[in-house]
Amino acid sequence: MNIGCHVSIAGGIQNAPKNGAEVGCEAIQIFTRSPQGGKAPELTPEIIKDFKSEIKKYGIKEVYIHAPYYINFASANNRIRYGSVSAIRSELERGSQIGARYVMTHIGTAKELGQEESIKETVKMLKKTLENYNGKTLLLLENSAGAGEIIGDSLKELAEIIKKTASPAIAGICLDTQHSFASGYDWRDFEKTIKRIDQEIGLENVKLMHANDSQSDCGSNRDRHEHIGHGKIGLENFQKIVTFAKKNKIDMICETETPGNKKDIETLKEFRDKK
Description:
The chain is an alpha/beta fold.
């Protein structure tokens, strides 16, 4: 399994592999466009060639794409809903161009349509997104911290959406340790939490992990990332999480702030490489 972090694409995606290598990344996560919105920058043949060349040069094993923040498949606003469909389809196609393994996305909020209707609408929009898609990059749904009426704080909910969408283009989930902790999955009781995850969605559906400690309490529903070992999950429990990820060949990506993310990557690697 590979360990890395989210890296900047300032100046173009071709700069991301070097940025990743500087903090010890074996895998990188990037945005391919502004996460806040606007037109995606063109991926010219030259940019794609440069990016792939830099990936090889710096020994980056895997590339992951994080979708923009504005995605909401369950919005009551048609423009937002269909804009989400268009953005995710575009990210999957861009991912296929640059050789990314997965695109991960949050789903949105049930605030406007209510829980049941939001799940139906999300499934409908995901089906539309993935219709006739045959690229190599696959989609992961990411669990949320659960503030407000966000969809996907419960892994049961994600399991239901994946099952009802029934598309081979959805590989599974990206499991964020901080988001899960904030939504009541207590990593301090490791065995119980792993068992719960397995019961709710199946461990085989965890394809990637975001390795973030938590500033906020278990069950707080607050999305507050912290450096590994400096939060409420704690070092001892990250050792167990890394052992689980290694055993199941699940890559780990830190989404913690620079410059501390370099130390986070080192810590995770130490745990992985322990005999």
